[in-house]
Design goal:
Tetracycline Repressor, domain 2; two-stranded antiparallel ribbon; 2 strands
Length: 250
């Protein structure tokens, strides 16, 4: 009987811990990392003692939330590396991280400040973001789906810019649309010669060319200009040549 009671207490404690983590993740995203442990406890529907029992400080709670976010990114990165289509894998990975950034900007800023974007994780020795990003970018470039003049640092800088997009617009839908515009800029420029366009044939005009004589320099017939003084030379080059010859003769 005592064993069953202890097992029930452990299940209840795990449930409360998960509830605190989910609430903290949401509040950090909505109100920033300045939210207090007491506010998190109230929103989670548990006592402050329950929160402090699992997370003695707010930094410990924030670190656990960040680790959970990193685990999600790492899992998706592994799935993207197994994707057979390089274009789908690369842009799918960008969209996954972008959506997380737009949903929870405070968490992404904390991750960036902690260095998890570019520094290897202690457990795996690999960077959670940069390690799959570099591989996916190289594959997409080899397949011709991404511009060849970009590196992982360029793409990571654009990913950080997504947080700026989220700050400048109110609508999440608009932020996602602008992020898609940003990612479209990574694609190589289309060759105008390969566009599916029908060339427009220029029909010759039904006009009669009237000549006013021949050029005194080259003998080419001079077309009638229609207005103004009649031309003496067929082109500017012949006019300059005649001027030079006249100057030499003088």
């Amino acid at each position: 009987m005592q064993t069953a009671v202890k097992r029930a207490e452990r299940v209840d404690a795990q449930r409360n811990r998960l509830k605190v983590l989910e609430t903290a993740d949401r509040l950090f995203g909505e109100r920033g990392t300045a939210v207090s442990l007491g506010e998190i406890a109230t929103a989670a529907g548990v006592g402050a003692g329950t929160v402090y029992r699992h997370f003695p400080t707010k930094d410990a709670l924030l670190a656990t939330v960040l680790d959970h976010r990193l685990a999600q990114i790492a899992d998706y990165g592994e799935e993207a590396l197994r994707e057979s289509d390089p274009e789908t894998a690369f842009f799918g990975y960008l969209r996954f991280i972008t959506i997380r950034a737009l949903e929870n900007r405070a968490i992404c800023e904390a991750l960036a400040a902690r260095g998890d974007w570019i520094e290897p994780a202690k457990a795996s020795g690999k960077c959670v973001v940069d390690n799959p990003l570099g591989v996916l970018l190289h594959r997409a470039q080899q397949a011709g789906a991404v511009r060849a003049d970009l590196d992982a640092g360029d793409v990571r800088a654009l990913m950080s810019g997504c947080t700026g997009i989220a700050q400048s617009v109110v609508s999440p839908e608009r932020a996602r649309r602008l992020a898609e515009v940003l990612w479209d800029g990574l694609r190589p420029e289309r060759n105008p010669a390969t566009r599916n366009e029908t060339p427009v044939a220029i029909e010759p005009r039904n006009e009669i060319t009237v000549t006013e004589g021949s050029c005194p320099v080259c003998g080419t017939p001079i077309a009638h200009a229609g207005t103004g003084r009649p031309a003496k030379y067929c082109s500017a080059a012949c006019r300059q040549k005649a001027f030079r010859d006249k100057r030499k003769a003088a």
